[in-house]
Each structure stands twice: as structure tokens, then as C-alpha cells.
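Q: Could you write out the predicted structure for this multi-component system? I'm mainly interested in how the pieces pack against one another.
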Amino acid sequence: MGSEILVQVQDLKKYFFKERLFSTEKEPIRAVDGISFSIRKGETLGLVGESGCGKTTAGKAILRLIEPTSGQVFFKGKDLMSLRGEELRKLRPFMQFIFQDPYESLNPRMRVGEIVGEGLEIHGVARGKEKRERVEEVLEQVGLHPQDAFRYPHEFSGGQRQRIGIARAIALRPELIVADEPVSALDVSIQAQILNLLMDLRDRLGLTYLFISHDLRIVKHISDRIAVMYLGKIVEMASSEVLFRQPLHPYTQLLLQAIPRLDPAKREEKIFFKETFLSLEKERGCLFAPRCPHFKERCAREAPFLVDHGDEHWVACHFV
Amino acid sequence: MRHPLLEVRSLTTHFFTEDGIVRAVEDVSFEIYPGEILCLVGESGCGKSVTGLSILKLIPIPPGQIVRGEILFNGRDLLKLSEKEMEGVRGNEISMIFQEPMTSLNPVFTIGDQIMEAIQLHQKLNKRDARKKAIEMLDRVKIPSPEKRIDSYPHQLSGGMRQRAMIAMALSCQPKLLIADEPTTALDVTIQAEVLRLLREIQREMEMSVMLITHDLGVVSEVGDRVAVMYAGRIVEYGPIEDIFHEMRHPYTRGLLESIPQLEVKKTRLNAIPGQVPNPLNLPEGCKFHPRCPLRIEDCRREEPPLFEVKEGHYSRCLRWKECR
Amino acid sequence: MNERGMTSQIKFFWKYFKRNRLAVGGLTIILIIFIVAGTAPFLAPYDPGKTDVSLKLKPPSLKHYLGTDQLGRDVFSRMLYGARISLSVGFVAVGISIFIGILVGAIAGYYGRWVDSLLMRLVDIMFCFPTFFLILTVVALLGPSIFNIMVIIGLTSWMGTARFVRAEFLSLKERDFVQAARALGLNDRRIIFRHILPNALAPVFVTATLDVATAILVEAGLSFLGFGVQPPAPSWGNILTEGRTYIFDAWWLTVFPGLAILLTVLSFNLVGEGLRDSLDPRLRGRR
């Protein structure tokens, strides 16, 4: 793995403001609240967290599919946030997105060939016969038949549709792919196929992934490093080996414990935390404090920063 | 010899659609004993949910129809009961909870109203006693400060709390059997772990039987006593949980388990099952799994294998079960 | 969308549409009226404008299928030509209204923010006018020609379509496949016309069909009040008006144009509802 940095995210924020007639509420929903990390070329960074933690919003904001509130994203050294219109569109082929729901992400009125080949045509990469050949090549790369180019998305199963989505993403030979829960809508036996495909493509095409998922097993399997998100913030980030061997943040510990073991003999009594009814409005402290078993007074007063505890093991907790 | 609480024999449920007959459940037999958790596990369209709905006769007719079979609950065949008699069984002796509690709870009533309604439907209690009982049930499913929560509306609760409220409602009449259809699928892992633990605890306390329908072998491993693995409307393997996880005798069960990434070992590729889940309108001949099976032989194409007894209580629908693992 | 794509979509939709017998019946009637209107010069036994006072107010017979009017003109022939005018008024007016509606709705829905607010307030204002009286006023000012009537009906009936299209755009632009198109680096025009619009058209067809019925009624109403298509050019509305005077002596002068209007409008409504049901995946039961 090269040490060249492909993507650098700095203090990225995305706030949603509830708009009401005649007034804008002052207190926004902080979907992504100042996250920073970088991804090296050829590396896979897993972004893991539970529903509503902001991981998908983060992924989309990084590619500017939604406009971030503030922060910077450097892609190949260019500040994406400063680019406008045509400049950004020119960079799009190099960074692609894979969506969660294969039933939602393909235009039902376009043939597979058009879906996969559209980008090639728009960016002037290939036209006519050349385009058709490239589409066929990509379809074969993702395990589909070249003849599938003439069919419509509704003729395919969920797993095959996801392959079409992947084909669309890799047709332009991107460097970065943000994959948002790419297997969670699929059956277990199909999940494994798609995971294998994503890993094969990574090796063959030298792709860099930001892999977003709620499933810790899958994230561990595919990622080199993992960042754990909780309520819009990254609470821990480390190589996947280290994170699973030695989780330092109480939330990460909770998440890892909650993973079903797949071994009925090891149905040990686990430590559990209470679900919370404490509201977190305007509190200045650590967002995890209401659920944290190691809660101390300081946690309510000040928010912890992400601190490097050696070997690129970053943790945001006062008591590590 | 214990007597089973529920005995399903050769249950066959079909859907007669315009595109053809969907054989959702085909010749499914299993038992649930008092005080155990039986897990029905399989991928989408394998017939696990239809099996659950068939037991309570909640299949929409038409297009659905229970074509054959017996469903013996305490020795009584539910399929022979009238709709009126069934109403006395549903929610009273057998309860059911679903994946998304938000759609099963009515948004315009408080959860207290809904639990009380369930109680008063089957028990002769006045309003005050019903309310007391509802609070007791909420406490039992570990909802904090139940006297306050009872007047909450469903949308005021988190997903995990809503599922707890659903469980409280389902259990308010002390059913002997709870059918839980993907009860934790919509929940986050941490909440899922808690709800599963709660289910297990309550099941022990109330000496109730549970039929847990899920696609997730992780969930099965956490709570199951015995497991029935379904594929294309059939049970393909059936046995005690230890056997299913460690001594599986069907290539599909093995494929499912190997599709899940292991935490302990770093493997580069998963042993994925090739191919697609079959179209229920167009099932293959012979063994329904043979097109995707690594062990298939000529015979698999020709005849559908019966359930072979691997050892007492453990069955596999595979001609080559001896060679599997 | 290429042509073969269109065929497959239509086949898919036809499968559901043909189950609705009333709608298929409506479609058949519309097709018949169309053919009749198209071939009126060949079908009509007489010149619709030819008067012959000796034949005035004759009841239906084998010579004059639907009788003659007060000037001795053949009612059947006039009805055939009237169908041409009524249908063209309906279709051209709706064509204009759909064009404006789609344009306004697409822009409002896709760009949102102040553009949306501005255009939607315009829609609200247009809705505030009692349309029929607006049309009457304009016709009174500009004179009642077929052309004027078509344009005016079109210009005053696009608001429903605009709201529909806007709502479709609002929800479609958030869909993943539109985001995917954005991620590919497509420009707004391509996203609007290639990715969103084809998916937004289904409900527009439904309203359009219903609008044709409305437009035909409006034209009939205008003609009835004398502000529509001017005699001697025949339209169902003005045949009806002229027959009004003789309603007790010559019932055929009012009954047949009335029936024609009723049947046509009913057919368009039935087809519109059939379209809506077969295009709505929820009513189909499957995605």
C-alpha cells in the first residue's frame, strides 16, 4: 500500500436546518459534526456506525452529492469544496458512489447498457462501438453477461442489480469509490458474492474504498482501517486488527460485544447498557455520556477530542 | 417423552397469482415443544414468514391458500377451526410480533390504550385493572418508568422501545406460543442484542415457546434451541442448534454460514454460494438447491430428496448428507 | 428513451390496462370517434354546410340517419365534422397546457427554493381566477375563433399538470438513480430530460386524458353560450345550441350531440382512470 494520500477530509460538517414558515430554527440537526480523516491510495477505510450516526450523509457530502455545511475535502490534492459546476463535473469520473438499495439506484426506464455507458459518453471517453465494447468488458468484470446490456433493470434480481450499479461506478475507471452499505439490502448468500466482487475489483483495478456499513463483521472483513461514528462524530479510528483486538472507546466496546457470535456455545452473558431517554440538546459534553458505563462528571462538561494513542489509534474519550 | 405444543405436519401453502402458482411453503413439518425457541431461518422468499402466517391463518385468501397439512396446537387442528374460534386463539394462546413495530402499532393511540385493548379483548378486566396489568407488562419488558411511558404515543418511543412495547402487547395474555417474525431486523446491533436477551429472559420466566423467524444466523446463534433451515419453501435441515452450527449436514446450511465473514480469521475471499435465490414461480426440478450446490450429482437433478435422519432429532434433505462436512 | 424501450414499457402497461374492461371500452369508443373524425369527408353522406329548406327538421330516416336541422342540413354529416373540431380543440388545448405545465413544474421542482416559490405562487394566482369566466372575457375581447379557443383553454388549464410534475420532480430528484446520475457528472439538462422526466410522465398522461374530456366540455359550454366555434362551422356544442330552440319539435337536434359529448367525455374519463390504475404500482400489487 502506497503512503500517498488520495482523500483528505478536514472538519467536515453537515447540518440540517428545519425550515419553518417565517422562521428558521436555530438548533440544527448535526448529521455530520466535524469529522476528519484521510484515505491512502489503494486503502479501504471502513466507516461504521448505527442508523442515524451520519455515516451515509458523510459519504455523500465527501463526494459533494449533498452540499456540506462546512469543512474541506482534498481529492488528489484538489479542494473539492472550492470547485464549481464544470470543474467538479470533470473530476466526477475519478470518484464514484455505490448505493445501498439496488432497486432505487437504477433508472427503471434505461437499459443496462445505457446505464453503464452513459458516463463514458458524457465525458467523451468512448462512443459508438468503442463504448459498446467497453460496456461489455465492464459487465463481464462484474460477473454479468455482455448480452445483459440490452435488458432493463427490472429483469434482474437484487444481487445482479447491485452488480449493475458497481459496473456503472467502475466504467469510468475511478480511483475512489464510496460504497454506502452496498450489501445490506441483499440476502446473506448474495452478500458474500458482492463482497468478493468488491475485493477482487479493488485488487485488479487498484481502487480505494470508503466502505460505509453498520455491519461490523463485513467492515472488518473488507477494511484496512476502521472509523467508528456516533451521532455525527468519529469516536475511534484504528487499523481493523487493532480496533477489534483492543477497542478503547466504550462505544466501540459496546458495538463489538453486541455482534452475534455465530457459536451457540459462546452465548456468554454480555454487558449491556441501558437505552437512554436523556435528551442531548445543547449539551456540551461527550455525546455518548448518557449511555456510557464509565460516565464521570467531566464527560458532561466537555466534549473529548480525537487523540492519537500511538500507532494511528485515534480515540475520543477522556478516560482512555 | 415430552409432547409438542405445536405440531405442523405437511403444511403446504400456495399463492395462486396471475403469473402462476407460487409454492411458498411445500410439505413443511416441525414441532415446537413447551418452553423452547425454535428458529426458522432462511433467505427472502424461502417461505419462513408464510409458514408463520399460516399457523395463525393470516394468509390473505385469495390469492393464498393452505392446500394441505395439519397444524396441531395442543392436539387441536387449527386448520379445522372456524374464523370465530381462531380469533380466540390469536393474541390469546398464540401471539405474533413483526419486524417493524411502527406499522403494527396504531399511531393515533397511546401504547397503553393498545395494550389494554389487547388485554380486554381476551380477559374480563375493568379499565383500571387492565391499566395496572399494562403497566406491569411494560415493566416486565424493561421499559423504564412504565407508569409514564404507558401514555406515550408510538412515535415518541425509539425503535427498540417500540419493539419492547410490541412484545408487552403480545405477551399481555400470557400466550403459550409467540411467533416473532424478524423482530430485531429493523434495529441496531446494540438494541438487537438487548431485545434478544429480553426475549430469552421472558420466554424462560413465562415458560413460553417461541417460534423465531429470521434471516440472520447470528440471531439464531444467540437465542435458538432448535433450528429449521428453509430453502425454496422446504425445510432442508432441521435439528438442535449445536448440530446446525457445528455438525451441519446440508450444503446450503454450510454455504450460509460460510457466507458470513468470520471475526477471528482474516480470509481474503468468502465461500459464497454461487447463483441466485431461485424464482418461486420457476423452481428447478429435483433438489431445489442443486443448481447452486457444490456437491450435486446427477441424481439431485432428478428427484427431490426426502428428509434423511442424520441422528435422532437431526434431519437433512440432501442425498449426500454423509459427505457434507 | 429509445423506441424499443418504449415498446417494452407499453407492453408491460398494457398487460394491466387490458384487465380494466370499462377502460378498454372507453378506449375503443375513443378510437372509433377518432377514425370517424379522421375520415369524415368520406363517411359523410352530405356536405355539412349544404342547406335545403325543403328538407328542414326531418326526423331520422334512412336517408338522413340523424335527421336534418332547421336549415335542412344533414345532422349526421354535421356531427362527423363536429367531431373533428371538438377533438382537435380538446387535443390541441391539452397539448398546450401539458407543455406549459411540464415546463413550469419541472423547473419549479428541480431547482426548488425561490424559483419554486415564485412559480407555485403564479399557479395559485391562476387557480384563483374562475377559469370559465376568464375564457369568456378573453373570447369576448379577441373574438371567438377555433384557434383562439384552443389557445385560451390551453393557457388556463396547465396549473394542475404543473403541480403534478413539480411533486414528481421533488420526489424523483432525491431518488438514488438521480443522485447516481449526478455522481457521473451529468449536467442539469440531461438529468432533467433523461433521468427525471421519463419517470414523471406517467401521471401526466393520466391528467392529460382527463383534461381532454374537460376541454371538450369547455368548448361545448362556450359554443352553447355562443362564444365558441361560430356557425356555420359545426361543433357538437353549437349543433346543440341551435337545436335548443326546437327541443320539443325536433328532439334529434339536441339528443345526438348531447349523447356524443357525454359518450366522449365519459370514455376519456374511463381511460384516464384505467391509465391511473395500471400506472400506479400500488394498485398493481407488485413493484
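A: Regarding packing and overall arrangement: Chain C has 13 helices and no strands.
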